[in-house]
Amino acid sequence: MQVNVGKNTRSGQAVTLDTLKAINGHLQIAGITGMGKTHRIISLVMAMVESASMMRQPLRVHVFDPHGDIALPYSSEVK
Length: 79
Description:
This protein is of the alpha+beta class. It has one helix at about 35-55; strands at about 1-5, 15-20. It has a two-stranded antiparallel ribbon with strand order 1-2.
């Protein structure tokens, strides 16, 4: 599954993640406060859900959110 993860700031070209070619199924997003990590995570998960839905593929995503900032539709929560 091809998922758009951002844009190359030098060339302006889209940067995509091919989940079938990834070494493993893990992705870490890190950065300082205010960089848009939460927004990026929500965008990535929604793009993955849309891609999986169009391909009729099952998808399971685990998001660890210690601050409770991320709200995703159709998600469940473990406390």
